[in-house]
Amino acid sequence: MDYIIDYEKKQEFLQKLADECKLRGFSKQTLKVYSYWTAKYLDFIIKNRFNLGNHSVRYYFLSLSLSVNSSRLCYAAIRFFFANILNNPFTLNEIPIKKKEKSLPKVLSKQQIRLLLNETKNLKHKLIIKMLYSTGLRLQELISLKKTDIDFDNNTLLVSKGKGKKDRITIISENIKLDLLKYYSAYEFKTDYVFEGRNGKYSKKSVQLILRKASKKLKFKIHPHMLRHSFATHLLEQGTDIRIIQKLLGHSDLNTTEIYTKVANKDLKKITNPLDNL
Known about the structure:
- By secondary structure, this protein is mainly alpha-helical.
- It has two domains: 7-84, Orthogonal Bundle (DNA polymerase, domain 1); 110-268, hpI Integrase, Chain A (Orthogonal Bundle).
- 51% of the residues lie in helices and 5% in strands.
- The chain has twelve helices and five strands.
- Strands 1-2-3 form a three-stranded antiparallel sheet.
- Strand 4 and strand 5 (200-201) form a beta hairpin.
- Helix 6 packs antiparallel against helix 8 (174-186) and helix 6 packs across helix 10 (224-237).
- The radius of gyration is 23 Å and the shape is globular.
- The model has no long low-confidence stretch (mean pLDDT 89).
């Protein structure tokens, strides 16, 4: 397939893309990302009168100035569009993809987490920070959490339809139980969600704002995923088996979990610096 399209054809392609994503059971977020980047690519070729084909895809990527992660998302969207809507897949040899950046996860120390909690006076806000750190939940999993997902007797929590639409079990802290009971008593709930917003489910932006305010004394911004990273790293440092951590985090591949072995400093603490032996 190698021809020039117009805006009417663009809308037809985007509808086919949406239908294909829905048929495959993709999440709303995946549909949103795929539709966004495919639309941007189609606008590019319409504006520049390029043909719909590999040649224009190469020019499109050369025209972009994106981070590695954004570039890879864009690549995945357009590759899916070509393979499943146009039935004209391209290979990595034909159109290369940017390599992943091999950066280590950012982890907070226990002292920094203690400071976050001490700086947060609001019960609900403090509970959100504790929940993220003590369970390893992703942000979307946190705001989707329902009261019935928490098992107080066994100190466990059901993550229902997490990433990849997979259920898993993770742990909750004994420390958090009393806070939860106080919180349940203090608020009037209109939904089954543990954390409610004005329109039902608590928003991602609200959680991010809580962390931003709490982290002012740390002099750098805290993101929800940093608490997940810290959960995994601190478990590893206290001797928890990495395969158990893999299950708690919901990683399909152990290699994903093993990144935390590179930031855990359990073994580094045992090393005597040569300067200290002079």
